[in-house]
Here is the input.
Amino acid sequence: MLPSRILGAVWTPLAWAVAVGALALGAWAGWRAVVDRPVILRQLIAGGVVEALMLVEVVVAVVKGATGDGPADPWTFWGYLLTTLVVLPVAAAWSFAERTRWSSVVLLVASLTVAFLHVRLVQVWVG
Amino acid sequence: MSAPHDTGSGPGRVVVAIYAVLATAATFRSGVQILRDLQEAPLAYLLSAVAAVVYVVATVALAKGGRWRPVAWAAVTTELVGVVVVGVLSVTRTDLFPDATVWSGFGQGYGYVPAVLPVLGLWWLRRTGPREDRAAR
Here is the structure.
């Protein structure tokens, strides 16, 4: 089926894009932690872009799953995907409460988690 | 500097964040294992579930601090004992664990985070402890 094939070609690059974006955000957060600065709004906007890409991922995965071309291990796949969606918003909420360098470290941890989970997502999709 | 008893702010947020990630991972993994293939490795999978509960309790207790500190101490200590005991058993008694748990091989499958985290947690609890608590130790 044509849409499914196009989506299939889109999904993996999309997941890698999210992983790379998350790593970049993590590097930025890590740098700000080193120079003793808290998370700033521009980082949250960047996080919002990564989050938006993940929402696109969810749509693509749902459509692919519905057309019978879903992940090899659906339980693990959906668990990972839903977890990645939550991580950045929690880190963002904390960065409002914690106006010290430690919010930057939390954002670093969150970004690395998202990047790692995306590597796993790509693996789990293939099975 | 964060006030005594305050385990959930400052650097503590990082500790809580890593705990939250591990708690989510462990809960989810054991849920899938138990729902899908419990009979394959009952001991390993039930142990995964116990570990997951301990991580959730530790996360909540560390985030709350204050009156929850004893709970945090107990949960984090349990983790340290768990990762050491299961780590040793998973190497010496492979027959007991046909499939991996969070604590197998000293948390190998999770980048050894399960082995490092309780030490970090205990250190953090000690550091944020009330003064008399610290003097007594």
Chain A has one domain: 2-126. The interface with chain B takes residues 75-76, 79, 83, 87, 90-91, 94, 97-98, 100, 102-103, 105-106, 109-110, 113 of chain A (CB under 8 Å). The mean pLDDT of chain A is 91.
